[in-house]
Amino acid sequence: MNSTKYILGIFDDPDDMMKGIDNLKEKGISIYDVFTPMPIHGIENKLGIKESRLPIAAFIFGCTGCTVAFCMLYYMLVHDWPMNIGGKPHFAVPDFVPICFEWTVLFSSFGMVFTYFYSNHLFPGRTPRVMDLRATDDRFVIAINAKTNYDHNQIDSVLKSAGAVEIKHNDRKYISYE
Amino acid sequence: MSSQHESIIREPLITGDNITYSKITNDILFPVENMPNKAWWIGFSVASLGALLWLCAVSYTFWYGIGAWGLNKTVGWAWDITGFVWWVGIGHAGTLISAVLLLFRQNWRNSINRSAEAMTIFAVICAATYVVSHMGRPWMALYTLPLPNQYGSLWVNFNSPLVWDVFAISTYFSVSLVFWYTGLLPDIATIRDRSTGIRRKIYSVMSFGWNGSVKTWQRFEAVSLVLAGVATPLVLSVHTIVSMDFATSLEPGWHTTIFPPYFVAGAIFSGFAMVQTLLLVTRKVLGLENYITMFHIESMNKIILTTGSIVGVAYLTEFFIAYYSGGEYEQYTFLNRFIGPYWWAGCMMYGCNVLMTQLMWFKSVRTNIAISWALSIIVNIGMWFERFVIIVVSLHRDFLPSSWAMFHPTWVDVSVFIGSIGLFFTMFLLFLRVLPSVAMAEVKLLLKSSSEQEKKKLLKHGNIDTAQVEYYKDSLIKYDSIEQAEYQNT
After folding, report:
1. Which residues of chain A have a CB within 8 Å of the CB of B2?
2. CATH 3.30.70.260 residue ranges in chain A?
3. Mean pLDDT, rounded, of chain A
4. CATH of segment(s) A6-37+138-170
5. Confidence category of residue B308, pLDDT binned at 50, 70, 90
6. What are the boundaries of each domain within chain B?
7. Tens digit of each residue's pLDDT (9 = 90 or more) over B377-426
8. Which pLDDT tens digit goes with each residue over B146-166?
């Protein structure tokens, strides 16, 4: 049996790669993933990837931060030890604004970034799951699962006609495990 | 989409012929992947000597207390808080470039945001060391935090702007750090995939396993946008709160409601000047002329001119309000900036910040590298004097004339300040050595839309209005990285 696990169509131009994606989709060939050195705008619609919900997470984290800060200030200044500072009111809401705001920002940015790291499995020391080493440099790589798309010759010709500069048949999914 | 063509009348953001994606990587990673040149070593030696001086002076301060400084009963804040506000202000430009310009879709930010953000982080580190060392006993820094303690717990006074400042600066530092590092991940992955051996292992750990798949990029962009959205009000709030340290007091010269916008404009002003100081040298030494072009330099000069003028208007407003308020203490304070013993500090402040920046109305000044660099240094000096005038000159004439005093810095004051500049440059030079100084992924985005070579193709093949072509060619004359002869013949 053919030992090819993944077929990589390697492009040196993002527009050619987009054409490659269109052509593959026309032929009904499913795309496993695309690896690029820079964000490609409009690719998520082509690949049918839903819009990220990270901004919603950021909003919820921000609300949490604001609430936590307000509760902390209320507990410390009003409930636990109300101090008489020149006879002014303890529950001085305008004075709460700066710290509530700072914590809104702090919680939303840290919450969102850590959610991002969690959802994409990014953490220090994680083994990079890279299919082609130049995909972070100057190559735009379309990866096709060779086990679910049987007609390898057709895939090759589709990629080539779209302008792929190189086509790889990899026996291993990731080359970065050694 | 990357093939989207930009109008011909927009100036190119990447100049030079035969720029490819791999050339961008090679050019930008050159200082990271090769041994540093002589200029770097000279700079690094001088800077690390400065950092050493800083270490000695700060240690001396911790050992003997802040009596080592020239402070006296009347002038209780001097070079320490001047230095603190100066550094925090410098830091603001990084966030402005990375966040505000991203929200406004200013693509020219792509090649300067990385080093500006790095500058932010190092400047805030310098500022933070001032805050800690001006406490005299650094462990007292713990008492600014609302931690449970054996006094009851006795909490911090959250009504005080000084406590707000603790929260603002620490939030600002950590959010800037996260913003910067997240943006670095794809570029660290590029270094990782090009290197071998131990280098690869180190960059592999630092890259968090980035692989550039569609979802990573899609979420990355969502994260960048939202972070920019929250960092924009954050950066405005930070210097607002710094200004409230002064504005909420009853000290004539400090007690002004214009302080928040005035400080924010001043911060952006001084920050852009520092970015200009650093980048004009960096672009030359690292050979990045094709990525940091004359357009970038001129745009930054325009921002310096705008914010400098806002600062000028704020100065005038202060004088007017002092006159109009009828408060004699207020009037005396402002008059004293010119006729008092510190008249020279006042002249430095108004001369450097307002008069000198007005030169930038001239295009020949804005596009002259040597003059721009000199002006950026002048702005940095002027902004230091602004804080000195606000702090020391306001304080040195007490309400009681018997308490009037001058401030005389000791060698420790001077060493902490010069040392902090050394520390800043040490960190910046190390950054240039180990991390890409330009956001590669973001510059690659511009290659097929706003580069000179794409515009050349447009000129060749596109049916473009001749008036627009002339306009475009005129706009290229200022560039020092473009072969002018090519355009004159066609």
Report:
1. 14-15, 40-41
2. 6-37+138-170
3. 88
4. 3.30.70.260
5. very high
6. 1-17+453-490, 21-291+300-450
7. 999 999 999 999 999 999 999 888 899 999 999 999 999 999 999 999 99
8. 888 888 888 888 888 999 999
State whether residue B152 sits within 8 Å of chain A by CB.
yes
ipTM: 0.92
Using a 10 angstrom Cβ sphere, with 0-12 exposed, 13-18 middle and 19 or more buried, the burial of residue B92 is buried
| Closest Cβ opposite residue A105 in set B24, B175, B186 | B175
Output the six-digit token pair for B348: 């430095």
Indicate which of A93, A107, A136 best probes the interface with B, i.e. most B CBs within 10 Å of its own CB: A136
Q: Which residues of A touch B239 (CB under 8 A)?
A: none
The 3-state DSSP class for residue B5 equals coil
Burial code (b: 16+ CB inside 10 Å, e: under 16) for B171-197 equals bbbebbebbbbbbbbbbbbbbbbbbee
Q: Per-residue pLDDT averaged across A56-79, rounded?
A: 94
CA atoms of B458 and B6, how far apart (whole Å): 9
The pLDDT of residue A177 is above 70 = no
Min Cα distance A80 → chain B (Å) is 8
Q: How many CB pairs under 8 A join A and B?
A: 203
Q: How many angstroms separate the CA of residue A27 from the nearest CA in chain B?
A: 21
| Gap between the Cα atoms of A86 and B488, Å rounded | 75
CATH superfamily of this structure's domain B21-291+300-450: Formate dehydrogenase/DMSO reductase domain (1.20.1630.10)
Q: Is B141 a residue whose pLDDT tops 70? A: yes
